[in-house]
Amino acid sequence: MSMIEWAKREVEIACKKENPNWDGKSFDYGCACYQSALKAYNSLCEDEHSGMSFDLTKNILIRLMEGKPLTSITDADFFIDGNMPYENPRFLKENGLKSNLQCPRMTSLFRKETLDGKVSYIDIDRVVYIDENGSCWTNCIVSEIIDKLFPITMPYIPSDKPYKVYGKDFLLDKNNGAYDHQAFLYVITPKGEKIELDEYYKEVNREMVKISKEEYFKDKKKVGN
Predict the structure, then answer these.
(1) Domain range for residue 57?
(2) Is residue 42 classed exposed, middle or buried when 0-12, 13-18 and 19+ CB atoms within 10 A define those classes?
(3) Kind of pairing between the strands at 119-123 and 109-114
């Protein structure tokens, strides 16, 4: 049995489990995904990929599917095709910026330049926050913390894994939504290194401000945990 025949049979089995009544013609979301994956697999086989070249091609495809560039991004990439500031002039003025550019090659990457010429880069997808319940989302404060510890420099190639910041949060004032206190305890870098953070924040006048560890736990006692 060839690899193409093997893959076809595997997809048929998977589709049967996904939808036992599927006739192979009508639309079924899960089966459609299996069929699409089979097309990509068959294409690789038809190009006679095997062994190392198969793995290399697979990794390239995965990066493309995840919207990650295949080669390093340089500062010049922000100015291709006459790229214009992402934000309007009012935003730039209020934030003391000369420009705020979104990279055409990677939509999560931005280049900010202040009026005095200081340039910094932000990748909004490279950091995730994970709370004590295992919920995971992006967080502006967490991103700023990691950007200070690990500033992005050019040339830049995003890692396959994000920086994972672990922490806890709680709600003291019920008028403040889901939480109004956050503790960012440590980060696991893309290379697997654990770094302690020990940074604490609370909401004051609808803005999260940094506080001491002592103040965080003093407030935490007020909610009984």
Answers:
(1) 3-65
(2) middle
(3) antiparallel
